[in-house]
């Protein structure tokens, strides 16, 4: 059985509708957690790191539009607003406040999945090295054109596979990338729960980049979710 491809936070106070959405998204290999109040969403994000947030507008505690303004300080992924308010003015307001898309309820489940997948493709695709400028994090610099890595005053030699993985992580610094996503992007296969190719590459990267192998702080393991490149960890 495949691991969930994406993590979804559904903010919806209609229990029946929320259960229907959860059941349907699970059939599309998505892990869904539900929050029923707007004023508890930011606290939920401390422990749950979704790839996308589905956000109802009419919520107890804090409405979805007010929450939409606050979320960018806590969440860098796409936000999909869902509302029975379907006028052009409502949709424009939601998009201007930071939402990436807007669907009118009741929404066809297949259409909702298509919108989710479209947003996640747009957000999760890192820039290709050939199209990108160098990345710098403290004493670490990554040149995508020469594939040269420097950490302080030394050059770090990586294989092409190790460089591809480092670039994928660093170009989405601060975001948790699931093993499923990494396998899809680098190997074009599903992660089956047993394959350790990526784990081995991560271990080699950590060793070459001076990370702590017992308690990594530069390329972190987020248990049950994936790996995170810590952008603030390269000054020492």
UniProtKB/TrEMBL annotation:
Where found in the cell?
A: Cytoplasm
One Pfam entry for this protein is Trans_reg_C
The OmpR/PhoB-type domain sits at 132-231
DNA binding happens at which residues? 132-231
A Gene Ontology term for the protein's cellular component: cytosol
One MF term in GO for this entry? Answer: phosphorelay response regulator activity
The residues covered by the Response regulatory domain are 7-120
Fetch the InterPro entries from UniProt: CheY-like_superfamily, OmpR/PhoB-type_DNA-bd, Sig_transdc_resp-reg_receiver, WalR-like, WH-like_DNA-bd_sf
Q: Which GO terms describe its biological process?
A: regulation of DNA-templated transcription
Q: Which UniProt keywords apply?
A: Cytoplasm, DNA-binding, Phosphoprotein, Transcription, Transcription regulation, Two-component regulatory system
The protein's matches in PROSITE patterns, at most eight in alphabetical order, are given as:
OMPR_PHOB, RESPONSE_REGULATORY
Can you say what this protein is called?
Response regulator
Q: Which organism does this sequence originate in?
A: Shewanella cyperi
